[in-house]
Amino acid sequence: MPRKPAAKTSSSATATAVKPRVALVLQGGGALGAYQAGVYQALHEHGMTPDWVVGTSIGAINAAIIAGNPREVRIERLREFWDSVSHADLLDMQQVPDSTRQLATWLTTMDTFARGVPGFFSPRPFNPFAMGLPVPPEEASFYNTEELRTTLNKYVDFDFLNSKAGIRLTVSAVKVTCGTLTKFDTALQPLNADHVMASGALPPGFAPVRVDGDLYWDGGLYSNTPLEAVLNDEPRQDTLCMMVDLWHADGPEPTTLEAVQTRQKDVTFASRSQRHIDSYLKQHQLRRIAREFYERLPAAQRTAADRKLLADLGAEATMHIVRLPYAGRDWNMASKDVNFSRGSIGWRWEQGYQDALRGIEVSKGCPFQTTDAGVVVHELPAMVPPEALKQK
Fold first, then answer.
1. Which residues, at least 6 apart from 270, have a Cβ–Cβ distance to it below 8 Å?
2. Pick from 142, 146, 156: which is nearest to 210 by CA?
3. Burial class, 21, CB count within 10 angstroms (exposed 0-12 / middle 13-18 / buried 19+)
4. Would the pLDDT of 141 be above 60?
5. What are 53-90's pLDDT values in tens digits?
6. Cα separation, 80 vs 362, whole angstroms
7. Which helix (H) or strand (E) holds 115?
8. Does the chain have fewer CB atoms within 10 Å around its N or its C terminus?
9. Mean pLDDT of the chain
10. C-beta separation of 42 from 360 below 8 A
């Protein structure tokens, strides 16, 4: 059910004539990103193709594949990418008990650490960096990601992405030398594989990527949920935002090393969306107050400069955010984002698809009208029993 709105709806609300845009916001989360692919498939099949995709890290890769391909091949390209980076399972996961599945998944994950993921990243042999020795900054990592460049150029049509036919794409990365967050946006500049790779360059596993002379790391180091890109976009307009959360801010008290590391990762990369929503609401309220004060001024005191300032503030807009949380706990594995086993990838994709179907139903109850609400956050209704959420 929808959460309590951030503010009450005005009784004088009137419907707007402009169709709200659809934005899809995708977190970073490594192998957990297969869930995002399932979310997009459901939106795609139900006529909710996003007008704008915003992503960080693996979210940037998924977003680039979605935005950088004609509609008729997007699902196929997503499938091809995730098939190419998944590892074959050691056993038929449907024919063994849960404890055996957990062991098999752990072994597959250890294989990823040892040998990398074909088409994505591979270990650097005889690596001076691993021994604490200085190396060129583009090689300061445990793994080499040059294979990802080839993969991105294979599954993303960057000419299409940067054309008028492509969906708007925004990916975020952190400038290494000053720690500021940079947003690369096709609305402002052409993007290529370097921009997407920079968004997913998480240290020390992956080296920074140089873009226009500057080095960039994974945007998730600064903010793993790039919701602020949508909230701060100008001019403001009514928006239905499907926001995918791959990490859990809430969780049990950890009692083992594995549980501590899992909780640490969840806390580090979980959504900080409420902070951005609160900031948006303050700006929204100040804009409303400014307009109300202006309307109270006598006509003789209203100047052209004032009218221009009010116009620059933009029109009233409502943001409906439907939050889609990945529910798989992956046996509380700290390495769940490195679990590229084929069975896990398939399970996450299907879970994302099913959750998005529920999210689509929630979105049908989102009225777009001129209100004083600003932002309304909607949660999915709880309907999946806990035992069904175990990692397959």
1. 224, 245, 247, 248, 249
2. 146
3. middle
4. yes
5. 999 999 999 999 999 999 999 999 999 999 999 988 87
6. 30
7. helix 98-115
8. N
9. 87
10. yes
